[in-house]
Amino acid sequence: MSIRVVVADDQEIVRTGLCMILDAQPGIGVVGQAADGREAVALARRLRPDVCLFDIRMPGTDGVEATRALAGPGVPDPLAVVVITVFDHDEYVYAALRAGARGFLLKDAGTGMLVQAVRAAASGEALIAPGVTARLLEAFADSGPAGPPVQPVEPLTGREEEILDAVARGRTNGEIAAECHISLSTVKTHIASLMAKLGARNRVEIAMWAYETGRVRRGRGR
């Protein structure tokens, strides 16, 4: 087992199903389960899993608060959190991404997408369910901070603008490499440069910045 996961969902049948799916995958194992956010935070801090899979709506401490506690801007050693929900138009989803979540999935996304999101989060990438990336970010772009968006410490290059657009549309590194006709390692280099220039911690924050600054045209999802 190489990817250790903590799962939190207040519905036992859902939580059990998620654990069964993940435990059946090679290289993935569930090391802890929680029925609410407070328990999930305590468990995650104790076990330090590679990935936390949290339902957004839980009693008491919800998935947003749990995410912020484990992956928020003030956390010195943040954990990778993927949020999962039945709602694809929920302001809490955007709040969770702002809180530091590394991915977002619908509960009907399917086994393949669930496993892909966990593996992506564990490897330092981020995955938002295809088809909702642009819609979600567009819908809640105006709910960010009242102040002006952060400006890059250095101007973005033309290639970085291309990569920014692709990341904001939910493209994977492999898809970006194919679209831009560059190597995978070059894509990773450009994304690292974007993170440094924007002060972003992950590609989700890169995508949010792209929408907040109007660099991505509306309606350009998958």
Task: Characterise this structure.
The chain is of the alpha/beta class. The protein contains ten helices and six strands. The chain has a six-stranded parallel sheet with strand order 2-1-3-4-5-6, with helices on both faces. The mean pLDDT is 84.
Q: Beta fraction of the residues?
A: 5-15%
* Average pLDDT taken over every residue: 84
Say how many strands there are: 6
Q: CA-to-CA gap between the ends?
A: 33 Å
Instruction: State Rg.
Output: 17 Å
State the order of secondary-structure elements, H for helix, E for strand.
EHEHEHEHEHEHHHHH
**Approximate shape:** globular
| Poorly predicted runs of 5 or more residues | none
In which range does the helix fraction lie? 40-55%
- The secondary-structure class comes to alpha/beta
Number of helices: 10
Q: For the largest beta sheet, what order do the strands appear in spatially?
A: 2-1-3-4-5-6
The biggest sheet, with number of strands, parallel, antiparallel or mixed sense and barrel status, is: 6 strands, parallel
